[in-house]
Amino acid sequence: MMTMFIVCFFVGLVLTLLITLFGVDSFELHGDAGGTHGHGHSSPSWFNMSSLLAGLTVFGGMGYILNKVGMTSGLLILLFAIAAGIVMAWLFFLLYAKVIYKHDDSMKESDFELSGQLGKLTVPIRGKGMGEMVYVLQGTTRSISVRSENGESLAKGTKVVILNMSKGVATVTEFSEFE
């Protein structure tokens, strides 16, 4: 049993260091609690890699220490080590959920959805040809190639709205404000 505790401790420690150095903490086991998967879900998973590895490391370390200090009951050592691992995993989850995840401003696909985006033509569209529009997204002015929805010509400075995207080119129509 001593070997198991040593292996758990060192595997947990090495993987924790690798995750810390290389930032590979995206592995999460999802129990689908009604949220969506991937970035943008409403709360972090209870089973994130940092929490699991913290629990594994403490489980191994606690089991090893209890063996070394002279505790003789293998079952009691195992129960204390499991309890310590679960408590540490829970504490890491709280740290992850309340501190780290709270400030995670990861980019989400929905933040960059262009359908419905308003902009202004900087290069006119002549018939079925292409033009260019500028728009503001996430506080940054951007430009994109555009073509008109029905092949009509649109003058420079015309306000347009993006209907859809295809192969990096936006299909637009003239934006008319309803009065």
From TrEMBL:
Pfam families to which the protein is assigned, alphabetical: NfeD_TM
Keywords: Membrane, Transmembrane, Transmembrane helix
Transmembrane segments: 47-66, 75-97
UniProt-listed InterPro entries: NA-bd_OB-fold, NfeD2_TM
Domain of life: Bacteria
Membrane protein NfeD2 N-terminal transmembrane domain segment(s): 2-102
The keyword Protein biosynthesis appears for this protein: no
Keyword Transit peptide in annotation: no
Protein name: Membrane protein NfeD2 N-terminal transmembrane domain-containing protein
